[in-house]
Amino acid sequence: MKSHPSAGLPHALCACLPLALCYLAACRSEPALDFGRGLDVPYVQTSPTVVHKMLELAGVHKNELVVDLGCGDGRIAVAAAAQFGARAVGYDLDPERIAEARRNAHAAGVDSRTSFVRQDLFAAPIGQANVVAFFLLPSVIERLRPRLRSELGSTTRIVSHSFPIRTWTPEKIAHSEGRTLYLYRLPQSLPPPGPLSAVPAP
Ligand SMILES: C[S@@+](CC[C@H](N)C(=O)[O-])C[C@H]1O[C@@H](n2cnc3c(N)ncnc32)[C@H](O)[C@@H]1O
Description:
By secondary structure, the chain is an alpha/beta fold. It has helices spanning 11-15, 17-27, 48-57, 75-84, 95-107, 138-151; strands at 65-69, 87-92, 114-118, 131-134, 157-161, 172-176, 179-185. It has a 7-stranded mixed β-sheet with strand order 3-2-1-4-5-7-6, covered by helices on one side.
């Protein structure tokens, strides 16, 4: 699997990448920050060891459907198919990533069990997934949360690399190579009302 330039960075620098993503998350409200190509999240790879741990944490079984939102070079989907015998669909807005993911699936011999679609993750179909996996910014997860709640069932597992789903309670937390991984399952209680919603409507 071809590595992105970030994969060649010294280990210490790579270990800081989630922190860098946090920083970007904080800056995301700044209109000047642009990841290019309409992307909501920059491309940062999950290491193969962490990918394996995510899929293990989610308890992926043979023939289950894994949906990978913001799939990058397809490594989560390809590993789900190649190592766990699952079927997987990856969505990414960047055409280069989709082309790379298809090449990687072909090289791993799993192109019949995987597909990669150039589509905005906010519009990607997730209802059939047994597992939804992602490595996204907190602000993006926040926007995704209502769809996760309304479109997924109680048997679907959701696994997030580095960033929790705010206000939800993880079923399990795991650690790998200094990264924190969060596993969720529905139902999740609704977030407590904010201070404004406590004010009676006029
Ligand atoms: C942090 S990378 C994660 C890549 C891969 N899942 C991994 O863990 O190695 C986030 C990915 O989301 C993609 N992305 C950003 N905004 C998107 C959007 N609105 N819809 C679909 N993909 C998006 C980027 O192109 C990038 O590949």
